[in-house]
Amino acid sequence: MKRLLAFFLLMFFVLSIKAQNTNYKQAAQDLYNSIQKNFYIQDSGYYREEAIGKHSENPISFLWPLCAMVQATNEMDVAFSSNSYLPKIIAVIEKYRDDRPPVSGYASYRLGTKVDDRYYDDNQWIGIASLDAYKRTKNKKYLQLGTDIYHYMMSGYDSVSGGGIYWVENNKSSKNTCSNGPGILVALGMYEATKNKKYLDTAILIYDWTISHLRSPNGLYYDNYNIAKHKVDSALYSYNAGTMLESSIWLHTITKKKQYLEDAKLTAQGAADHFLGSGYFRDDYWFNAVMLRGYVRLYKYNHDVKYIDLFRKCVDNTLKTEKHSNGLFGRKGVGNLVGQGGLLEILCRYATLK
Predict the structure, then answer these.
(1) Where are the beta strands (DSSP E) in the chain?
(2) pTM of the full predicted structure?
(3) Which of 32, 148, 224, 311 has the fewest beta carbons closer than 10 A?
């Protein structure tokens, strides 16, 4: 009798998990459809930055929201066992390609003759998603894109202030966690794809600089280091915790060095306390999507659901309380494309978590 009861309890648990994943998967598909309806411009093949009905000063989106969509559509391909979502976004991103010296990259805005500055982090998010896609598909065009992004981001590295990558190509005023954390991940993705040790050495070099210049006492990461003022901007954002959490556990997995694991544990708990304690997201959805990547890598390493379940509460509260009539989400009205792309990534990841 006890065995029979245990069996039924197990089956109930399994079915509950499956139902829950099906809900996330359906929510992801619904959100994707709403994004296409509200943001995609059929005539030009670009995306708009603000949803239909909201004022925008620009006729098309900046690159940054597409950096959210590129990872989200990679996760759509994972969740739906497809290879069709990501290439559509890559095709739009290619419209922003900018071959000006010293190295080809992607401009933050491009329409006709108007070409804006280039941000190292914008390019790195594209590189991270491309290398994830290469791991999944073994399509060499994604490895080539990751390689190109690596070369571009390293053109922003120098020895000023001891190392690190700048944030903006033509404004060398700061080196930011948001341009160094994802830089580590691009380098680690290249190492994973090629086993060339130079990429691992680069990852460790950037990691050490970021730890020494921008880590807070509780394992979170400050926004940036101002070069001229020798001063740290102490603002805290969840995506900075996310890239460094993922970097720490990935480096530990490769090197087996205990210190990286200790770094990961400190950041994981610090981020949970600061960003997830209320049961609602404190930051923009996309910032949290990047943080979730770190928690997912930690979970796959230690199989502890603590942070995954804590994060899930915020996801469920978002689905219950922040959806609008047009199918988009936002606590204070509908956010722009970057936030919707971030939530789409989150939903896809929960649809596939085991």
Answers:
(1) 97-98, 105-106, 110-111, 114-115, 166-168, 171-176, 222-226, 231-236
(2) 0.93
(3) 148
